[in-house]
Specification:
By secondary structure, this protein is α+β, with helices and mostly antiparallel strands. It folds into 2 domains: about 240 residues, Naphthalene 1,2-dioxygenase Alpha Subunit, Chain A, domain 1 (Alpha-Beta Complex), CATH 3.90.380; about 110 residues, Rieske [2Fe-2S] iron-sulphur domain (Rieske Iron-sulfur Protein, 3-layer Sandwich), CATH 2.102.10.10. Helices cover about 25% and strands about 25% of the residues. The protein is built from 8 helices and 19 strands. The chain is globular.
Amino acid sequence: MINAEAVWSVEDQEAGFTLPARFFYDAQVFEQEKAKIFLKSWHLVAHVNELREAGEFVTLEVFDQSVIVVNGRDGVIRAFHNVCQHRGNRLVGVRRGKAALLTCGYHAWTYALDGCLRAASHSQDVPGFDKRAHGLKPVQVAVFAAFVFVNFDPAASPIEAMAPGAEAEIRRFIPDLDRLTLLQEVDVPVPANWKVIQENSIEGYHFDHSGPAHKALVQLIDFSGYRLRAHGEWWSYIGPPRKDAVAAYGVPLQGATWQTDWFFNFGLWPNATIYVFPYADVVGTFIMNPTGPETSSLRFGYYGVEGRALPEVTKACIRWMNEDLGPEDIRLNVSNQKGLHSMGFERGRYIIGDGFDNRSEHLVRHFHKLCHDAIRS
């Protein structure tokens, strides 16, 4: 049970008060989120093109759990718990690679790419030993919008059922979705609760106030048309382009190519975002991985179009995200996390109104309710 101090009353919810501060650092709340949210949710692992050839694999860690996703000799992408069935040794210790077989580095138990045990030293001398009974344990895997996801819950609903209509929306803004190739992946530790980070990404209220990078972003889009939409377990925040833009990220637009001139973001419950910045020929993934009640690891992935040289505008955009917008957001995350511990703060008040959709915090409220309902279920 959540302790008495970590309660979001129905009265407070109806009155427009936010999720109380304790939900962002309470250890019991965090343990419930681990069990009821993250071990039952879909996690973005990689783009499907990272697993194009037989034997190519990518691993993912969620708390103390590790999954290996591998393309088999038959072209089928499968996911398994990343653990040898002999004595529980971690099978693969790198993020990406390619292998003909999966061999444990402890006692050399060897598995085929379909998870079947192929060899176990001296097992022929053990009466009744059946290799068929000791294959790798499967994890649910799915390809959605050209990205590979896994879910520890075998009874989890398909992503298409969670996010009806989402893939069509993504493809409308990312025409080269199937042709992407990984350019860069960066993991950044942040001393803030994962929800603090998510909140910051799903409201435009702070854009005019929080720093020069956000103000520069507003100059690239028609901010009056910025819209944030909740669709159950997925959401979008989209801004149309400024018609008079001739440069972006300090570089002229003339001669450049891009996925879209819109600011487009797709979010999947609970912590994955696929996005495109205006006038950039790069697709980003942004994943908020909780590592503790007040710590997270942010994984930034950048994908370009296979066989296409990056325009200077796109290179400038990646630098701007890494050196300006990202650090600016992280400073806000850290400052926010510190403030939540103040004896002078218990819970906040949403700014929500029909006349200012671009600055309204209705998507934050929606996200808070998803979090609260999940751990209360």
